[in-house]
Amino acid sequence: MNIDKVEISRLKMPLKNQFETSFGRLTYKDFLVVSVHSGDFIGYAESASLPYPIYNEETTGTVSYILKEFLIPKLFSAKSIKHPTDIHELFMPIRRNNMAKAVLDGAIWDLYSKQQGISLATALGGHKSEIDVGVSIGIEDTVEKVLEKVEQFIGEGYKKIKIKIKPGHDVEVIRAIREQFSPNIPLMADANSAYSLNDVNILKQLDQFNLIMIEQPLSHDDIIDHAKLQEQLATPICLDESIHSVEDARKAIELGSCKIINIKVGRVGGLTEAKKIHDLCKSHNIPVWCGGMLEAGIGRAHNIALSSLDNFSIPGDTSASDRYWAYDIVTPEVMLSQPGRLQVPDSPGIGYEINEAVLNQYVIDKELFTKELILK
Q1: Is the previous residue joined to 53 through a cis bond, with omega within 30 degrees of 0?
Q2: C or N terminus of the chain, fewer CB within 10 Å?
Q3: Would you kindly state where each structural domain of the chain is located, as residue ranges?
Q4: Residues paired with 104 in a beta bridge
Q5: Torsions phi, psi for 232 (to 5 deg)
Q6: In DSSP terms, which residues pair with 163 in a beta bridge?
Q7: CATH for 123-353?
Q8: Pairing relation of β-strands 161-164 and 135-137?
Q9: Which of 160, 164, 275, 276 is catalytic?
């Protein structure tokens, strides 16, 4: 796999509606699109980073820096890249910076799939032709607004409703949803690390609502206190921010810190590591699902391909494009094939074309890198 050039575009895309979690409010997505060129083939991926270090330590700026100063030079200096898994090994000497690694890893996976004439899902070992998808509802000003959105998304057929919670916006919100809608609606709560073990009595109250899971209730880097909490809860705990690698997943499973794991490609450093976590969890009967980071169409395409693996048995957060964007950067846009389901593309690579007109509308910076420029 001979790499001719790498291009980094920085985009600023306004969200249709603001999205709030326990760690902040976003009105736009500031992210990178990376394209890797080899002959007539181009592989694409987008960074999962946010403009502020509020989900993890990375930002769009740090991702850009690590790509330019370390990862792209390593890519061009590699003697041989035969398979995308080689990228994972190539980047191992660089600590963390998983979102930076993931965007280049993903572009190489897309490039490889296109060169092989197979879909990204097939390249990863996926077999599903369609996947079930859910939707994530941010923190709203009132319970009534949350209920309005729940009603809308139930009507659109989404297979799972995720509610963002934080202290003071938790038990009563979930109670209101259960009282207004069928108790059989697949419902979960996502805390984004907003609680501590001192809040165990609040979290135990959520057991009465038959939730699929409570996602990351405690600290973003914890697996020990989560094990203590899981012992006291009937509701399964799902870990998100705490899992950065297959080793983290192994330790969390052995400690009993969770019963479900959320796999986000950016958080774990790329598709190669994501697949390893999937395989480990499958061997321990731990179901997984694919979380979202407000991705535009390229990132959504990568998530769809990953979710085609068989242990992704819980609907993920990869909703349709028009949930977040007035216009997406891929064509066709990501649309539900039927209520609550997305089709897994079977054409080479991610299965979507880049809508250059829309992408260029949101580009605020662009840089091109070649081996000659990097290694001179």
Answers
A1: no
A2: C
A3: 5-117+359-374, 123-353
A4: none
A5: -100, -5
A6: 137, 189
A7: 3.20.20.120
A8: parallel
A9: 164
Query: Distance of alpha carbon 93 from its chain centroid, rounded?
Result: 24
Q: What are phi and psi of 72, to 5 degrees?
A: -65, -45
DSSP state of 68: I
| One-character DSSP codes across 99-128 | HHHHHHHHHHHHHHHHHHTSBHHHHHT---
Planar angle of CA 88, 345, 317, nearest 5 degrees = 70
First to last CA, the chain: 21
CA distances to 59, 124, 253, 276, 279 from 283, in Å: 34, 17, 11, 11, 6
**pLDDT tens column, 174-226:** 999 999 998 889 999 999 999 999 999 999 999 999 999 999 999 999 999 99
DSSP 3-state assignment of 365? strand
Homologous superfamily of 5-117+359-374: Enolase-like, N-terminal domain (3.30.390.10)
DSSP 98: H
pTM: 0.94
Q: Which position among 5, 101, 160, 264 bears the catalytic label?
A: 264
Is the pLDDT confidence value at 108 over 80?
yes
Question: What Å distances lie between residue 303 and 131, 278, 316, 354, CA to CA?
Answer: 11, 13, 9, 16
> How many other CB atoms sit within 10 Å of the CB of residue 174?
23
Residues 39-95 pLDDT 10s:
999 999 999 999 989 889 999 999 999 999 999 999 999 888 999 999 999 999 999
Distance in angstroms (rounded) separating the CA atoms of residues 281 and 146 = 33
Active site residue 164: yes
Distance CA 13, CA 23 (A): 20
Q: Are 271 and 124 in contact (CB under 8 A)?
A: yes
